Amino acid sequence: MIKIATSILSADYVNLQRDIEKVDKGGAELLHIDIMDGAFVPALSYGPGWVKAIKPITNLTLDVHMMVQNPERYIDDFADAGADIIGVHKEATPHIHRALQMIKNRNVKAEVVINPGTPVSAITPVLYMVDQVLVMTVNPGFGGQKFLHETVKKITELDKIKKEQGLNFDIEIDGGVNETTVVGAYKAGATVAVAGSYIFNADDPVLKIKALKDATR
Questions:
Q1: Is 203 a catalytic residue?
Q2: Active site (annotated) includes residue 34
Q3: Residue 77: how many CB atoms within 10 A of its CB?
Q4: Which run of H or of E encompasses 25?
Q5: Which of 55, 164, 168, 214 has the highest count of CB atoms within 10 angstroms of its CB?
Q6: Residue whose C-alpha is closest to residue 212's, from 185, 170, 201, 203
Q7: pTM of this prediction?
Q8: DSSP state at residue 56
């Protein structure tokens, strides 16, 4: 059964604590926090202050996804704010090993992220040092996009490498996740699914979390 990371990008910001408590009670395991700088992706979103404010109000794992150029500039800030996982894009820095090393040095779980157009081969040299790999199943920057089915091949490839090399990283998917698209990704080896609009735009978010879990039993 897949673990669910609910993306607060689609939550009600005015009633954020209410929405976080709802998905927590509904069975989600992680809270996915998208950090966007208006450069690496067109949109702007939260800074470290959001993570710091959220940390005391939930026991959910804070999964911080940095969609920013040169993420090394902000890793310490998000570690200080209370991030449990920090994800950095291979495409956002020429020094991906250094960025991941910085995260690990702060005793935070490290995640490497790849866009739909980036092959798994681009990150194989650093897979030994990560706790999680995020395969973007849409192009990053906006919620509500359709799942790119061709990305499932990358999940299969990562799962094979993981087994052959005896590694234990989670494989996370992000974008276009629903009770249908999650099935193929889960069968290919995905262990965590990010869902935002699918959950928070629903009349009953708890039922949507249940649907994702039931689809991957």
A1: no
A2: yes
A3: 14
A4: helix 16-25
A5: 55
A6: 185
A7: 0.97
A8: G
